[in-house]
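Page 47, continued from p. 46.
Same chain as before, 285 aa.
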Amino acid sequence: MVLKYSFRGLMAPVFTPFQANSRQDIFTEYIPSYGAFLKEKGVLGILVNGTTGEGVSMSTKERKLITEAWAETVKKTNQTLMVQIGGSSLTDVKDMAQHAEKVGVSSILCLPDLFFNPKTVDDLIHYLKFVSHAAPNTPLFYYHIPSFTGVNLSMSEFLSKGKDQIPTLSGIKFTSNDLDEGAKCLKVHEDLTVFLGADTIFSAAVMLGFDSGIMTTLNFWPERFQEIQNSINSGNVKQAMQTQTKISKDIENILASGSWVHQMKLYMKNQLQQPVGLTRPPLGN
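Result:
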């Protein structure tokens, strides 16, 4: 029952651009330029409304607006589009799933229920079946990010069971440092895609067999991650580790005076001259 999903590679979780003088007004006019900027850097995949995109800080209406703007942009840039729909009531999640399918996104990504947390893999499957039925023709990915959600179930067990019960399941975004569990996920089914979501352990993940990632700093340095992949594939592990060390140190410097999304937005705006604005409350600036 695995729904075939053909994209493999590097996908940037994009920032939601807010107007320079307002964290409430979304600067949708920038999105076509943003898409072209990433395409020029070699980024062929886009994730909208994820953690980096502050999706859970926006209304359903706003999230649909962003989705529509990116859906139009990727038609011109020929990038694949994934939309994160979780973080709201199940009613709104299903509504956003239907909307995403209607505008023609390539896939949807979904968090677990953030209040009625699933306690078992079966609970999680039960929840995602509702989401799957709302968008029956669109590949569905589960967003595993236990440091935020508090839901830390076995993803290899989830994939093993879910592939037979969730009609549109295509894989997961694995945002965890538990690479032993990540490696188990890779072995469940050849048609399931496992995206790594952790910037600082990419080289180790590639050595274990990961071929795809969704990481914030792909907005900045996609060439570094491509270099890691090429180095490992050619047997030059030392070069790959040196590149990973540079990524990790630069991230450490970026985060020296603030939290993840805020500092990453500042880097995007100040170092790369991309007008993504500031973060929206409850995130501080």
